[in-house]
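Exercise: predict the fold of this chain.
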Amino acid sequence: MAWWRARAPNDTVEDYVIGIHISLGFFAFLFIVWRVAYRLYEGFPAAIAGTAPERWAAYLVHRALLIILTLQVLTGPLYLFTEGDAVNVFGWFSVSLPLQSSEAIHELIEEIHVVLGVYVIPGLLLVHIGGAIRHYLAGDNAAEAPQPPTDR
């Protein structure tokens, strides 16, 4: 969405794209908070396939994704709140916190949000998807499939 915002032909289109970005971000926030809470409660499944370095990489990437996504959905609203704005969700309702006095951290929060969204999250997703494709093509998930009963 930020890519489309940067290429908007005028302020009206830019405001529209940002409105959608903020509204979808609100729902992403809810989903990511649920996902992180679920993963913390249930724990991570054990790595069953691949070499030790691959299992270690999977361990790191899964945890990094959850941490970075959490930071992303927290810095988005903080960016707005430190500017004195509210999270307006499709015009249905708004969420606001009075953090205008925190303007000193506004630019830092914006930079973190942009760097995570433009570089870090896409990079981690590419590694994650690449690992999933590698495991699928190598047949590493065969151990998870139910085995047919034997006649003994």
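Check your answer against the key: Strands lie at 87-89, 93-95.
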